[in-house]
Amino acid sequence: MSAGSDDLAFLPVAELGALLRRRRASATELAGYFLDRLERLGPSYNAITYVTRERALVEAAQADREIRAGRWRGPLHGIPYGVKDLLATKGDETTWGAEPYRDQVFDADATVVTRLRNAGAVLVAKLAMVELAGGMGYRQANASFTGPGKTPWNPDYWSGGSSAGPGAAVAAGLVPFAIGSETSGSILTPAAYCGVTGLRPTYGLVSRHGAMALSWTMDKLGPMARTAHDCGLVLAAIAGRDPADPSSLERGFRYPVSGGPRRRWRIAVPQGATDGIQAEVAANFAAALDRLRTAAVVVMDVAVPDLPFGVVAGTIIAAEGASAFDDLLESGRIRDLTAPEDRIGGYPALAIPARDYLRAMRVRRLMAQTYDDFLKPFDAVATPTRATVASPLDKAFRDAYPDVKGGVSLIGSSNVVGVPGISVPNGFGLNGLPTGLSFVTRAFDELKLVRLARLYQSRTDWHRQRPPVP
Amino acid sequence: MRLRYGDRLSDDDLRAITQAIHSRLQNVDQLYKVALTNADEPAFVFAAYRGTER
Predict the structure, then answer these.
(1) Distance CA A436, CA A422 (A)
(2) Is A186 annotated as catalytic?
């Protein structure tokens, strides 16, 4: 392999692919390199549940044979990757981050894993996650049998949740890309806290078949990687209709595509977006907007629809989650979860009347229409991904930064209505921790999201910064 | 909750659960302040199923 070993760990997918195509590295060499890093460094960040060494070497050898024979499957051919451990992989433990499911093994791969294998990608690891994707209401970082996820930028701080392992593993150069899941913030939050790029697709664009269900109507799977371009490449491989997931849609995602708008972008910023948030987060957001203004009209102080997004999200996730984990609640095995609050967190949801759940789902339809009207005049709405940097591991979330009580996050609202979002790194704040910039667009505007994030990344180098990984 | 799961929940657990239910009830009014008509359906669609003929 020609690249220096550190360089290799932090190369984007597109550049690793170029090495493979030019025969400067083999898929087997890449797999071995990232497997070694996973085994050596993964435990430092509580980032992995299982390294799939045997499977990876088989898949890599196949990729090498095909590439040597001139059969090029595309930009992910021979590229190692990891999945959040809520995706089933045949014959491996799939733990959902939760002690009661620690020995769970499925006899088939999740559709996303199958699609990535068909694209020639090489699965190297199942990555750690907050137990049950946070569905039981965890309130601090130590909520998985693998321990609290640690951001490689400062391991005394959280990597975010619930895709804690994917965020940390991509940031530390343990995998070039990973698949995370988001019900309400679980891709964008770790992307921001770990300084990587995370894309949450429109609900239904990516099949959920073989993924742990927390909320059937809100769960989404999406890529986490170094760049928006890499996220686009991965999304193109995994999107599209799957007969095994009735919520999946015919509409796929084609990428890369040439062309694109020549006009100036039109970006909205919600009213109060930076009021009361951490000063460094606000300053980084303002600097990001300044960068974008050379190519975009930034419309400030736009009003976000005044609807009870939080209550709707909370009601839907709690009610669907309680049903999805019926067996755990009824058996009493919920007491074996790691976080004390998760051990009783499922019970209150059993008292949600059907009427309230249905009311939330009816309000949700209205919200989706109103939200589309809100997004329609703009190419994207921009916000800081989170109001603060990551929390310290030894504090409950609410006690981490008690003075920060402001800002406007679109994470809850955009998840309720199912539209896509992306978070890109945009600087650093307290204690050397990264901050994130988010864009949200109308449903199925992922191409716009990727292009806008690429534009930002073409003018900044935050996504090229490396944490102090040994 | 006490009748169904009381044997596995401590008094502290039951207090925390009660508090969580109260907290939810305090917010749930917001759902009913949004005006809906009889025609506003929930945001999911049931599909009738017909398997393969063979």
Answers:
(1) 10
(2) yes
